[in-house]
Amino acid sequence: MGPQEIIARRIAKELAPGMLVNLGIGIPTQVANYVPKGMHVFFQSENGLIGTGAPPEEGMAHPTLTDAGGSPVTALPGASTFDSAISFGLIRGGHLDLTVLGGLQVDQQGRLANWTIPGKMVPGMGGAMDLVTGAKRVIVAMQHAAKGSPKIRKKCSLPITSLRPVDLVVTEMAVIDFDEGHAFLREIAPGVSVDQVVDATEAELRVPDHVPEMAL
Amino acid sequence: MQTISVTQSVAMIPDGASLMIGGFMAVGTPERTINELVRQRKRNLTVIANDTASPGHGIGKLITAELVRKVIVSHIGLNPETQRQMMAGKLEAELVPQGTLIERIRAGGHGLGGVLTQTGIGTSVEEGKQRVEVNGTAYLLEMALRADFALVQAFLADYLGNLGYALTARNFNPVMAMAGETVIAGADNIVPVGVLAPDHVGTPAPVVDYLILNS
Questions:
Q1: Interface test with B, best of A84, A99, A105, A160 (most B CBs within 10 A)
Q2: C-alpha closest to that of B160 among B212, B205, B202
């Protein structure tokens, strides 16, 4: 199992029936592949759709049915569409149960940086700041390190996305959560040791006596 | 409401105008109006939109033609040309969180001075803005936005100017239709008055100034 599959499979365990969920691009999108069989979850695309389904079969795409990246999607039975004011009202107004986003860095208090690398990559924040500030629960899906450099750090060197700490970070090595300004190691991936996670993390990681293995 | 050709509609727009343009990654963008803006070489435009699409699509065509002086958008990441012109100092980009952008436009069109949001507090978005505390919670004051023209695209229009939208091509369109001094609508299909059911009208006719004919 590759790193991305480990992350997506673990995050899928956080889904519950009837949840309204927004998945960001990249690894987060793959979470939809591992929804438990028979469980109904509402996926939102912030361009104005609830009930987003898989990409259409060839020849079945329609130019007015797309995801937030502009790619063709399907709408499942029971889907709804709405304008951008309602879409972000859902996000900020306490209606979105869960958002899963990619991350560049997360600091020890759980604050996420994921929208810009000044001077190098200035794409704009899109919906990321509203999602992190407004969703009931925020999960970051990212690789534990980038080119050997830890992404979970004492302080973010990149501009943060929101003051609001994220609830959970899931990497191919570990599951980490945050409480009162501290980071806690909650689970380790199969075949990974606690020491390896601590070594690959720059932030001070509080380690309970027993750290269970991720259920995948 | 007047019906108009696409050529006439763009001829009304002066150089230096501010334009709200509907669409999300060019889905729901008035493509014929964009093509005509390029053909008539309208310059120094300020574009308020969700994004600048990608080169060759929607607003991306205005960027590539170097007709835009300033954009107020949430995302330019899928258009390297926008980023290149911004880095070169040729294009000013005001990057706004998407939910804040749509609410600023909504406020502009609904007679409100602005909105209070927690989005952006403690980030670079806060710079130069006023914090307002309400019942112990801090919010940013984000100002209303209006534009000289709103260029919107509907799925269905009738000859009174009622507009109905389709699926994810709705996005910013109905909100922008309220916030332009002059509202110019295009539609994939124009139908006789009475065909659009009242419940399916997303933008009521009196808001629309001009409807672009499809012939």
A1: A84
A2: B205
Find all residues with CB under 8 Å of B27, minimum gap 6, and list them.
A47, A63, A64, A66, A70, B168, B169, B171
| Bridge partner residues of A150 (DSSP) | A145
**Mutation for testing the B interface, residue in A95, A112, A125 having most B CBs under 10 Å:** A125
Contact: A124, B106; criterion CB under 8 Å: no
Q: Using the CB atoms, write b or e for A48-73: b if 16+ within 10 Å.
A: bbbbbeeeeeeeeeeebbbbbbbeeb
- Reduced to 3 states (helix: H, G, I; strand: E, B; else coil), residue A146 is strand
Instruction: Tell me what ipTM this predicted complex has.
Output: 0.97
pLDDT in tens, B138-152: 999 999 999 999 999
Cβ–Cβ gap A48/B75 under 8 Å:
no
Write out pLDDT tens, residues B143-196. Answer: 999 999 999 999 999 999 999 999 999 999 999 999 999 999 999 999 999 999
pLDDT at A2: 94
Domains delineated in chain B: 2-113+144-212 (3.40.1080.10)
Residue of B nearest to A73 (CA): B168
Structure token pair of residue A196: 């390896």
Ordered alpha helix ranges (H), A118-210: 128-134, 194-199
Contact A44, A52 (CB under 8 A): yes
pTM of the model: 0.97
Closest of A80, A104, A75, A83 to residue A166, by C-alpha: A104
Question: Domains in chain A, start-ordered, CATH in brackets?
Answer: 3-206 (3.40.1080.10)
Q: How far is CA B80 from CA A78, B18, B168, in A?
A: 37, 23, 24
Output the six-digit token pair for A35: 């929804």
